[in-house]
Design a protein that fits this description.
- With about 290 residues, the protein is α/β, with parallel strands linked by helices.
- It folds into two domains: about 90 residues, Orthogonal Bundle (Arc Repressor Mutant, subunit A), CATH 1.10.10.10; about 200 residues, Periplasmic binding protein-like II (D-Maltodextrin-Binding Protein, domain 2, 3-Layer(aba) Sandwich), CATH 3.40.190.
- The protein contains eleven helices and eleven strands.
- Strands 3, 4, 5, 6, 7, 8, 9, 10 and 11 form a nine-stranded mixed beta sheet that branches.
- Strand 3, helix 5 and strand 4 form a beta-alpha-beta unit.
- The chain is rod-shaped.
Length: about 290
C-alpha cells in the first residue's frame, strides 16, 4: 500500500462515497476505484460494503484503513519533524575546524553566551581540511577555520576573512642566525634549541599537533609563554627561538618564513552569500582572540 492509496482509503471512509472521495483527492472516480480494487487484491478481501447508501469498512477494511491512517499520520509527523529540523539548522551557527581548535573555540563561545554576545545555537564540526572544504562547498557550515591557507586561490574559491602566518622568530644577534640566512634547514639548525610558543590566542598545542608533528620535528624543549612581552623579551635575549605572528617583535627579532608555511588562523566562508550576523560577530571576535 502506497501513501496515495492510504489517502484514498481514508477519504472513502470519511466521506462514504467514491464520488466525494475522488473529488476531495483530486482524482477521477475510475482511477480511485481501480486503486481500491488493487488494494482488495493485495489484502485478499473486500475493504468496503454499502450500508444505508454509504460505503463502510468491512472487518478487513477497518484493519487496512487503520494502517492507512497511521501511515498518513507518520508522514505528517515526518514532515513536521523535518520542518523543525530545517528551522533549527537554519538558526544554528555552524563552524568547522580542526580538532585541535575545538576546546578553545568551545570555551570562547561559552564565554560569549554568558556575556549575551551570542544568543543562538552554535555547532562545532571537527575535521581536516577536506571535511571543511566539502562542508563549505555543500553550504552546510557558515564559517571554517583552517590551520594552513588551503590550496591556491583559484582552486579554493571561498571568501577569506582573515589569516595570520607564523614565522620563525630569532634574535638578530643569535649565533645560529647566519646558518639560517644561508638557507640551511631550520629543523637541522635548531634541533637542540629551546622553542618558545606564544600561548595567547592560539593554543600552543595547535601548532604542536598541526605542524611540528606533521614535520616529524620534536624540539629538545618547549616553553609556553603567557604574554607578548615575555615572548619577545626572552627571544631578544637569545634564549631560544620562537614561532610568532609576523607583527610581533619586528624591531628586535629576525623573522624567517616557514617552509611549508603555517597560517595558524584562516577564517573562510562561502562567497556567494552574505555572512550571517551572528557569524560576522563571532568572526570578528575570533580575529581579536587569535590575533594576540
Amino acid at each position: 500500500m502506497t501513501l496515495q492509496q492510504a489517502q484514498y482509503l481514508a477519504a472513502v471512509e470519511e466521506w462514504g462515497t467514491i464520488s466525494k472521495a475522488a473529488e476531495e483527492c483530486f482524482v477521477s472516480q475510475p482511477a480511485l476505484t481501480k486503486q481500491l480494487q488493487l488494494l482488495q487484491k493485495e489484502f485478499h478481501g473486500e475493504l468496503f460494503q454499502r450500508k444505508g447508501g454509504k460505503m463502510v469498512p468491512t472487518d478487513v477494511g477497518r484493519v487496512v484503513v487503520t494502517c492507512a491512517r497511521n501511515m498518513l499520520l507518520a508522514r505528517q509527523w515526518m514532515r513536521q519533524s523535518m520542518e523543525r529540523l530545517q528551522a533549527e539548522q537554519k538558526s544554528t551557527l555552524k563552524i568547522c575546524c580542526q580538532k585541535a581548535y575545538e576546546d578553545s573555540l568551545a570555551f570562547l563561545i561559552q564565554s560569549l553566551r554568558q556575556k549575551q554576545v551570542l544568543s543562538g545555537n552554535v555547532r562545532i564540526i571537527t575535521g581536516g581540511e577536506d571535511v571543511a572544504r566539502n562542508a563549505l562547498a555543500e553550504k552546510t557550515v557558515d564559517l571554517a577555520i583552517f590551520n594552513t591557507y588551503p590550496l591556491k586561490p583559484e582552486a579554493f574559491p571561498y571568501h577569506v576573512h582573515h589569516r595570520i602566518e607564523l614565522f620563525l622568530s630569532i634574535a638578530k644577534t643569535h649565533p645560529l642566525l647566519k646558518r639560517l640566512r644561508e638557507g640551511e634547514s631550520w629543523k637541522r639548525v635548531l634541533r637542540n634549541e629551546t622553542f618558545l610558543l606564544h600561548q595567547k590566542g592560539l593554543p600552543a598545542r595547535v601548532f604542536e599537533d598541526a605542524y611540528l608533528s606533521e614535520q616529524n620535528f620534536v624540539p629538545k624543549k618547549i616553553l609556553i609563554m603567557e604574554s607578548e612581552g615575555s615572548s619577545i623579551g626572552t627571544l631578544a635575549n637569545g634564549e631560544g627561538v620562537g614561532f610568532l605572528p609576523y607583527q610581533l617583535g619586528n624591531t628586535v627579532l629576525h623573522r624567517i618564513p616557514l617552509d611549508p608555511p603555517f597560517h595558524f588562523f584562516t577564517v573562510v566562508s562561502w562567497p556567494e552569500e552574505p555572512i550571517r550576523e551572528d557569524a560576522r560577530i563571532l568572526r570578528d571576535l575570533l580575529m581579536l582572540e587569535y590575533h594576540g
